[in-house]
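Students often ask why inverse folding is considered easier than folding. One informal answer: many sequences map to the same fold, so there is more than one right answer. In these notes we will look at a single instance of the problem. The structure comes first.
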C-alpha cells in the first residue's frame, strides 16, 4: 500500500543536492561583506545573580578588538516578548550571554571574550526540577494554542470500577537540538536598510522581531536564509535573543558583524526540549477496552518565561475513551528557556501512553497490537469532531504484516541470539495538522522558465524541490523548466518551517497561483495572432510537459517558443491562501512503529536492529523526500530512547556535556534496517490534501524501543534514555 509513482508523487532527488555536497551552497556564516567584523559571546558562569561589573581592560587592549558591549553600554531595544540580552544586570541561568566582544577576526573575538572578567553577585538558584515542586505554575496555554487541561466524562469514578488499573510515572530528560549548522547571523546596513543573513526557520518571523526590537518599518528589514543546515526547532523563536544581539552589535559599531555560536553555546543559548515527569493512570476492562485515562504532566521551564509542550495530546486524542482528564504544569528552574523540538509534546507524551498500554497488554495477556486495534477512535473525542481522515488502523496492520509481528512470542525473554536477548515492541503515532496563511507568485520568463517565488525557507526538508514539483505539475512543464526563489523576505510572505506546517501551507497557494498562470497562458496563446493556436477556444488547448497543443487538430507550439513573444510578456499570478478559522474536521497524521532490539545478556548494551513503520499523512508530493523525513524522525526517536540527555551539574547549574563527544546521539553504527511504508491517503477535507510529515516519525518511536527492551529482558524501564547501566 505504498504511494504509486504518479504525477503528484514523483520521487525526485533534491534539486540543490549537488550544490550542498560540493560546497557551492553558501550558508549564513559563509556570507561575506566588505569590512566584516566578528562577535563572540561572554557567558555567565553562575545560574543566578546580578552582574556588578565587566572588566574589559585586558580584552580591549588585545589586537583587533573593536568594542565590548554589556548591559551598561549596550544600545536599548524594544521588548520582543523574550529574554532581552544585555538590557539589564539579572542572570537567569549559567551560560547566559552577559557581554559581547567585537573584533576584526573570529579568533581575535574569541580570545578577547576569554579575557573578559565578569563580576557577578550570586543569588540562590534552583537547578533541578525536583527542587521546585513546591511552586508549580499553571500556564495559560501550551505551545500551538493547545489547552493546558482537559476533561471529558468522569475518569476518577471510572478508574474505581475498572477491572485493571495501571498507575505509573514516566520521565524524559532535557534534550538539545544540535543541528549540523551552528546558528549564525551576518548583518549589515545598506542605504538605510538592514540586511540580515541568518540560519532561521522563519525569515518573516525574524523580520517582524527585528523590525519591532529596533523600531524599524518592516520594509526596511530584509532577512535572507538561502540554505539552512537543520533546525529541529532551535532556529525559530529560541534564536531570536542572540539574533537581536548580532544586529545590536552591527548598529553599535556601524559596520557589518558576524555572530556564530560555538557548539558548546548551542546547549544553553538557543533552547532545548524540556524535561518531563508524567503520571499516568489508565483503567481498562477485562477485555482490553479503555475505560479511563488520567494523565498529569509536569515540565521544566525557565525562571523568566513560560513554555509548555502539549505533552498530553496523545492521551486526549489517539484512542477511543469516553473518560479522560489531563493536566499540564510547569516548574521554574534556573536553566535555559525550553522551546519546541521535533515532535514537541507528542514525542515525550507518546512515550508515556504507549509504554503504559504495553504494560497493560502484558498484564491482561493481550497482544499489544490487538489492544490498540480494540481501542481505535471513530472520531476525535477531545474536540468532538469527525476525522478528516484516519489511517491508523491501516498503518497498524500494514506495518505489523511487514514486520512479521504474528511470530512474536507473547511472553518476554523468550528469544536469544548470539548472546543477546531479542525483543519486539510497537507503538502508535499521531501528529496534528497545522496550516497558516501563505502567499506565492508564479510567473513565466522570456526563456520559457516558470518562476516560483515564495518567502518560506528550506531547512533541509526538501522544500525547494517540492515547490518546483508543485508548480511543474500545476502549470504543465518539465521540472527542469522551473526556477524557485525562496528564503527571502523580499518575496511573497510564506510560512515558517516547524510543526510540519510549511508544506501544508504553501502547497495550496503555489497550486492556486500555478493554475492561474496556466489559465492565463492558454487564454493569451489563443488570442495571439502569431501563434499557430490562434483562434481556438482556451479549453481546446492543453499544456503538457511544456508543449501547447490543440485538442482538436495537430497544431502545436512549445511554451518556450511562445514565451519569447510579446503576447507572453509580464505573465505572473499572485495567490494568497489561508486556513478556515473554525475547522469542521479534526486533522492528524497517523503512524505505527515496530522495533526489534538485541540486548547483550552480559554487557546490557541495547542495539536497535530493525524498524518497520507505516504512516498515513495525506497526499505525498515526493515519496523519496517523505521517506527521508520519516527516517530522520525515527533516528531522533532512537536518540530519545537510547542516547540523548542534557546533563546539568546541580551545584553549579552548568550543562556538563556540551559537546558531541559527551552528548550522545545515534550515529551510523547505531542505525537499524529501516522499512518504511507510506500509506496512500486521500483527504478531501484538507486544502491540497497535505498533512505534513516532519514530526510524525519521532512520535511513538521511543516507546516502541522501550517496549521491545521489555520484551527482550522482562525489565520495564520508564525513564529515558535507556542505557546499559539500567539493564545490568
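Output (designed amino acids):
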Amino acid at each position: 500500500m505504498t504511494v504509486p509513482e504518479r504525477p503528484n508523487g514523483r520521487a525526485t532527488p533534491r534539486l540543490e543536492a549537488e550544490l550542498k555536497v560540493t560546497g557551492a551552497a553558501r550558508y549564513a556564516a559563509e556570507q561575506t561583506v566588505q569590512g566584516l567584523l566578528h562577535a563572540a559571546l561572554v557567558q555567565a558562569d553562575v545560574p543566578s545573580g546580578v552582574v556588578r561589573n565587566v572588566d574589559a581592560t585586558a580584552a580591549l587592549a588585545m589586537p583587533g578588538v573593536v568594542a565590548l558591549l554589556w548591559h551598561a553600554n549596550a544600545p536599548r531595544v524594544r521588548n520582543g516578548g523574550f529574554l532581552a540580552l544585555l538590557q539589564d544586570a539579572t542572570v537567569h541561568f549559567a551560560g547566559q550571554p552577559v557581554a559581547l566582544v567585537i573584533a576584526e577576526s573570529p579568533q581575535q573575538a574569541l580570545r578577547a571574550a576569554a579575557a573578559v572578567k565578569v563580576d557577578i553577585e550570586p543569588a540562590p538558584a534552583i537547578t533541578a526540577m525536583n527542587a521546585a515542586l513546591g511552586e508549580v505554575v499553571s500556564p495559560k496555554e501550551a505551545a500551538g494554542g493547545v489547552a493546558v487541561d482537559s476533561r471529558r466524562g468522569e475518569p476518577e469514578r471510572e478508574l474505581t470500577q475498572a477491572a485493571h488499573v495501571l498507575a505509573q510515572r514516566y520521565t524524559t530528560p532535557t534534550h538539545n537540538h544540535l543541528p549540523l549548522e551552528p546558528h549564525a547571523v551576518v548583518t549589515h546596513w545598506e542605504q538605510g536598510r538592514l540586511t540580515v543573513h541568518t540560519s532561521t526557520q522563519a525569515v518573516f518571523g525574524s523580520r517582524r522581531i527585528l523590525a519591532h526590537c529596533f523600531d524599524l518599518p518592516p520594509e526596511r528589514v530584509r532577512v535572507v536564509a538561502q540554505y539552512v543546515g537543520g533546525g529541529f526547532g532551535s532556529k525559530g523563536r529560541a534564536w531570536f535573543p542572540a539574533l537581536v544581539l548580532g544586529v545590536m552589535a552591527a548598529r553599535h559599531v556601524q559596520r557589518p558583524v558576524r555572530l556564530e555560536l560555538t557548539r558548546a553555546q548551542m546547549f544553553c543559548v538557543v533552547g532545548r526540549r524540556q524535561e518531563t515527569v508524567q503520571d499516568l493512570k489508565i483503567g481498562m476492562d477485562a477485555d482490553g477496552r479503555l475505560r479511563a485515562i488520567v494523565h498529569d504532566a509536569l515540565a521544566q521551564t525557565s525562571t523568566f518565561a513560560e513554555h509548555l509542550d502539549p505533552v498530553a495530546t496523545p492521551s486526549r486524542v489517539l484512542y477511543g475513551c469516553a473518560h479522560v482528564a489531563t493536566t499540564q504544569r510547569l516548574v521554574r528552574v534556573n536553566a535555559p528557556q525550553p522551546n519546541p523540538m521535533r515532535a514537541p509534546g507528542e514525542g515525550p507524551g507518546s512515550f508515556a501512553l504507549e509504554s503504559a498500554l504495553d504494560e497493560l497488554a502484558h498484564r491482561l495477556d493481550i497482544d499489544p497490537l490487538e489492544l490498540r486495534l480494540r481501542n481505535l477512535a471513530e472520531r476525535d473525542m477531545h474536540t468532538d469532531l469527525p476525522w478528516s481522515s484516519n489511517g491508523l488502523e491501516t498503518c497498524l496492520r500494514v506495518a505489523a504484516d511487514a514486520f512479521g509481528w504474528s511470530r512474536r512470542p507473547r511472553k518476554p525473554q523468550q528469544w536469544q541470539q548470539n548472546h543477546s536477548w531479542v525483543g519486539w515492541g510497537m507503538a502508535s503515532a499521531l501528529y496534528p495538522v497545522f496550516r497558516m496563511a501563505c502567499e506565492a507568485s508564479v510567473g513565466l520568463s522570456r526563456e520559457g522558465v516558470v518562476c516560483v517565488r515564495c518567502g518560506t525557507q528550506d531547512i533541509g526538508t526538501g522544500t525547494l524541490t517540492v515547490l518546483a514539483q508543485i508548480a511543474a505539475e500545476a502549470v504543465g512543464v518539465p521540472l527542469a523548466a522551473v526556477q524557485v526563489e525562496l528564503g527571502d523576505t523580499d518575496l511573497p510572505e510564506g510560512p515558517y518551517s516547524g510543526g510540519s506546517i510549511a508544506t501544508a501551507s504553501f502547497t495550496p497557494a503555489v497550486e492556486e497561483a500555478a493554475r492561474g498562470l496556466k489559465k492565463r497562458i492558454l487564454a493569451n496563446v489563443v488570442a495571439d495572432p502569431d501563434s499557430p493556436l490562434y483562434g481556438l477556444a482556451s479549453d481546446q488547448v492543453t499544456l503538457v510537459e511544456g508543449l501547447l497543443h490543440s485538442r482538436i487538430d495537430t497544431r502545436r507550439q512549445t511554451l518556450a517558443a511562445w514565451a519569447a513573444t510579446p503576447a507572453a510578456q509580464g505573465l505572473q499570478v499572485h495567490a494568497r491562501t489561508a486556513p478556515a478559522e473554525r475547522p469542521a474536521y479534526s486533522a492528524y497524521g497517523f503512524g505505527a512503529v515496530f522495533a526489534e532490539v538485541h540486548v547483550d545478556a552480559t554487557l546490557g548494551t541495547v542495539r536497535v536492529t530493525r524498524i518497520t513503520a507505516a504512516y498515513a499523512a495525506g497526499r505525498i508530493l515526493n515519496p523519496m523526500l517523505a521517506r527521508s523525513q520519516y527516517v530522520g524522525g525515527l533516528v531522533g526517536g532512537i536518540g530519545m530512547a537510547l542516547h540523548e540527555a542534557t546533563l546539568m551539574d546541580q551545584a553549579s547549574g552548568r550543562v556538563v556535556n556540551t559537546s558531541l563527544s559527551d552528548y550522545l546521539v545515534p550515529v551510523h553504527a547505531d542505525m537499524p534496517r529501516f522499512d518504511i511504508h507510506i500509506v496512500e491517503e486521500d483527504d478531501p477535507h484538507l486544502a491540497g490534501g497535505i498533512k505534513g510529515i516532519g514530526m510524525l516519525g519521532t512520535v511513538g518511536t521511543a516507546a516502541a524501543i522501550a517496549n521491545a527492551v521489555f520484551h527482550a529482558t522482562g525489565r520495564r524501564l520508564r525513564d529515558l534514555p535507556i542505557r546499559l547501566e539500567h539493564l545490568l
